[in-house]
Amino acid sequence: MKLKRVLTLRTIVSTSAGLTLASSSFIAAVQVAGFLAGDSAWIAILIGGLLCLAGAACFSELNGRLPSAAGIRLYFSRAFNDRLALVVSLLYMAVIMGVVGAESYVLGNVLTMAVPAVSPLVWIVIMLVAATLLNLRGIKIAGAFQDIITYGLIVSLLVLSFLALNRVGFHLTTPLSPGGAGNLISAVAVGVFLYVGFEWVTPLAEEVTDSRLISRGMLLAVGILSVVYALFTVAMTATAPRTELLASPAPQMVFARHLLGEPGVIWMVAVSLAASATTFNAGLISVSRFVYASAREHVLPPVFSRVSTIFFTPWVAIAGVFAVGLSVSLAVVLTRHYLVLVNLAAAMESIVYALAGLAVLRLRKKNPAAHSPYRVRGGMFIPVMTALVFAGLAVAVALTNIWVGGYLLAGVLLSWWYVSYVVPRIKQKYQVRRPARRRRPAAEPSDPAGCEKT
Amino acid sequence: MASHAEITASLRAFQSGYSKNKRLKIMNRDWDRVVLVKAEDIESEHTLILKDGELSLMEGNNGRADLIVAADSETLADMFYGDITPTEPYMNGTLKITGSEDDIVRLDFISLMIWGE
């Protein structure tokens, strides 16, 4: 069976890398550098990239076995149980909302640096309203436009990196001595944030005829991102004062100003806008569609399944996501705790990757004969390593920042309570409301007439 | 296990529900799509064709699908009769849909508007 329209590898790579490249990534990159001595951040970033490649391999096998836009909801449900899958999915979506909040805060600050007369809060509201209106209209970045944005971003970051490294004559300070092992582990743990979202490309499994393309696309995207992030982070720390970078909510702007002055600022505003556009687009669409789907399966209140009869979009879910996104952004503006959100996302992502490694092992054991176009090579080694290393990294992030550990624990408990006590009540109410009699006749009907034959 | 005739009847019920909904027809007048409905446990294929807001049904596969809806015959019959929502079998992997994400969501919206939650 063939579909009329299919996606190419180029678009799969650009979608995976584009979802991952965000304005808040630069904060995480500088944080990684902050843990390590000299210009050695590239080591932690490349290690993080290699680990995420292992995670991508596990996701590829899961996607090959269960090619569905339901993603982790389906993988974890089949591998473990529905309750755990739901708890993790709800928590993950909540963290993604936090990423959207952090992203809007960073972009708000980027724009205020370019236009100081307008406060970050105003920019945040403008951006969230604009992203929500586009979502309500059902307009999204896809296909060729996604290719242009992502590949344009990658080229821009590479050119800026080479300009910066050329300025210092490619002379780096202790590039091979990151310092103690403890700091390197913390740097790698936070560095996982740089790759948050590469696996969001798995929903495209339903838009390709060969699901191996998704695997190749994810692996290529993580590889490209590793190189780009490593070069750009080293370029930042080599040209701009480290203290200034660490103190700024938009370190990429500090770097651009040091490198090229005002033209650099304009260039970096364009880069940040492009990076945030794909993140907002993917984040808001993914979360609102997840909220809608959850309401349709009676996991969230039915009001969230209401659909706009004009645009065919789930307007209540979109409005709800806007309200939460704005609240998170306001909380970040008031508290300036954007780093907590970045670390929280890194910890949550590590938990999801660890579970993905375990899910591969469980599914192989449960159904060894199942067909999969992609199987991680090396037997159990990569899934086991992925599970252990990412579980360790999640703990490392939680220990580095006590707030992250606290929020994560509270989130798990809240999500578990919701799934255990609230969801059964919503389902019970639905059972009362649903039609008492089935529409489908009990007896087999005779072959209906009037059905054309092809 | 549902029979081919039961799946046909369920699709007829779906088509009838769609045809009675004038608003749905107006909303879909720019959404021309071919949907292949395929049972995985019995020999049964149907093609739903949406053109200019009108929905027609044909038996078999015309080979030009934008969307492919595949599941066991029981799930297909229950789903097109509106006795179950598509989301539950979709989330547990029983129902597989191949096509663009927007088209998949639109199909679910149509089901929601015909049968309610």
TrEMBL record, chain A:
GO MF entries: transmembrane transporter activity
Bilayer topology: Multi-pass membrane protein
Claim: Methyltransferase is one of the keywords in the record: no
Compartmental location: Cell membrane
Transmembrane helix as UniProt keyword: yes
Regions that span the bilayer: 12-36, 42-63, 84-107, 113-136, 148-165, 185-205, 217-238, 265-292, 312-334, 340-361, 381-399, 405-424
Taxonomy, superkingdom: Bacteria
Keywords: Cell membrane, Membrane, Transmembrane, Transmembrane helix
InterPro entries the record matches: AA/rel_permease1, APC_superfamily
GO CC terms of this entry: plasma membrane
PANTHER family recorded: AMINO ACID TRANSPORTER-RELATED, MEMBRANE PROTEIN
Protein name according to UniProt: Amino acid transporter
Organism: Desulfotomaculum copahuensis
Lineage: Bacteria, Bacillati, Bacillota, Clostridia, Eubacteriales
Automatic annotation (TrEMBL), chain B:
Stretches assigned to the SCP2 domain: 31-100
InterPro entries in alphabetical order: SCP2_sterol-bd_dom, SCP2_sterol-bd_dom_sf
Pfam families: SCP2
Superkingdom assignment: Bacteria
Protein name: Sterol carrier protein
